[in-house]
Amino acid sequence: MSERFDSVAFFSALASEMNAHPERFTILGDADMSAAIVMRRAGGDLRVGLRFEGLSCVEVGEVSSEELGHADYQLVGDLDAWDEMFDDIVANGAATGRLTINSLALLGERIVVAGDDPMGLDKFSRFNQTLQEFLDGASRLRGPVTVG
Amino acid sequence: MTDVGIEGLPTHSLLGQPLDWAWLQGVESEWGIQPKPSPRGLTMLDIAVGSYGEVPDRPRYRSMAPRGADIDGDTPDMGYILNRKSDVWADNVRELYEEAVARQWSATRDIPWTELPELPSDLEHAMCQVCTTLTEIEMIASDLPAKWMWRMNHDFLEAKMFLCTQIMDEARHAEVFRKRALANGGGLLKSRAGQESLLRTILEARTYTQATALLHLLGEGFILDIFRMGELISPSPVEKKMFRMAMQDEARHVAYGTMHLRYAIEHDPDVAEEIHEALDHGEVVLTDFGTNADFGSALAVLLAGGTDDVETKGFPLQFELTKRQMTSYLARCERAGVSRLERTKIPLDLLGIDVSTIKGAVA
Asked: Which of B266, B297, B304 is nearest to B120 (CA)?
């Protein structure tokens, strides 16, 4: 394991990977959504906001707890759950078994999907495979991600 | 508009019919709007500008004349019965239409059919039974909008366009599940009277809003959760892909239904009781369907990975997922503005559903 998943730099690298390979997302079609990833960890949670437009991830950045509600939906889980998910992606090229983001959120035991806006919350399912393909990009990142 | 001179233009066609050049000058529709395309092209949201973006609460005409055109006063009545915007509208309907068009997929091309592995007989039978039932029930979500669309006022064009995409989506779902039932050496298995009763209940709803409550909120919400659990029941990547793609489509339909009901209730609070009455009956029929011997046991076998562990693993996991399905449905009702927490026919105690978690989740 050479990468640290709990960093904005890691998600920025995922965005770069997505934006460099729109062909992977063309089959899925345009997606317009914003998501917030919350990794609970000792020493303070990491909260990353992601914004997708069309076939691109156009914005990645750390957000405050107050700003979480601005996202269409939030995915919240302990860091070890996120680590296990990304380790599986890196090992297998894509999420497998019950470690897809859909299955994790469906079972709701380790990562939950949350949000106040019904139209926003719907987007987790409507654009689910775009989000999964974005996360699966972790398997294609070369070398350790530089944490700035 | 800037009038165009018509002096010198012919007054009759070559066949002697009188010509009318009114469209060249003096029409009352808005001219020169020129919407700006967004980065992906010119969307329905982009052209909802000026008077063309205004959807009347009660349209003046009941014809197929395009909203915003300069319409003859004697345009014929098409017999529309859904003539209030709140009858069909949802605030997200333009967005959902564009999304549907952008995210179409092919059951022929996009599912890796050649990668289907040979499965143990019990798993193949279970998958074929699930696909038989899904093939049967998916087309209700095509038939029902088709039944009502020709009665919808044409000023609600975007809602009708969205429902056209839903019809195509459901045709594809029937296609993909039928193909899966046949593709691996299995076939179509049992079709029971119980699910036909559910479909008939939906199809025979008295009003479109009742039909939407039964179809989009209850029925499709239930199926959306089945598709979401598709990853858990799929023996191979082929089924996983099939359920994942269908899930996204189904979520759009549920999003329309939820927001339509919300819009309807906000603009006509009396409609809430009408929706409740439909759901009172629908929940009973759906619960019967969800626990039916074929579909339920086939799901349990798939969840267990075979018949050996169906009792120890399959049914307990299915029970947990049923609990989540019902919780999701009740939460959707809250979002739609039609709280079922005090009225539902779903056996909450039996399922162990804590109502306070639903209230908290949607607060």
From this structure: B304
The ipTM of this complex is 0.88
CB-nearest partner of B248 from A114, A116, A125: A125
Closest by CA to A6, choosing from A84, A98, A105, is A84
What pLDDT, on a 0 to 100 scale, did the predictor assign at position B120? 97
Residues of A in contact with B99 (CB under 8 A): 29-30, 32, 126
Give yes or no for a contact between B29 and B67, defined as CB atoms under 8 angstroms apart: no
Beta strands A46-53 and A111-114: pairing type? unpaired
Q: Compute the Cα dihedral for B77, B164, B289, B262 and give only its sign.
A: negative
Taking each helix axis from N to C terminus, what angle separates B157-183 and B140-149, rounded to the nearest 10 degrees? 160
Helix (H, G, I), strand (E, B) or coil at B83: coil
The alpha carbon dihedral of B135, B139, A101, B327 has a sign of negative
Q: Is B268 exposed, middle or buried (0-12, 13-18, 19+ CB in 10 A)?
A: middle
Chain A contacts of B244, Cβ < 8 Å? 102, 128-129, 132
Enumerate the β-bridge partners of residue B206: none
Residue-wise pLDDT tens digits, B212-250: 999 999 999 999 999 999 999 999 999 999 999 999 999
Crossing angle of helices B140-149 and B121-138, rounded to 10°: 0
Element (H, E) at A47: strand A46-53
The closest of A130, A141, A146 to A57, measured between CA atoms, is A130
Distance set, CA B101 to CA B44, B74, B339 (Å): 11, 35, 32
| Residue-wise DSSP of B106-146 | -TTTSS-GGGPPP--HHHHHHHHHHHHHHHHHHTHHHHHHH
Residue B243, amino acid: F
- pLDDT tens-digit profile of A118-136? 778 889 999 999 999 999 9
d(CA A10, nearest CA chain B) in Å: 26
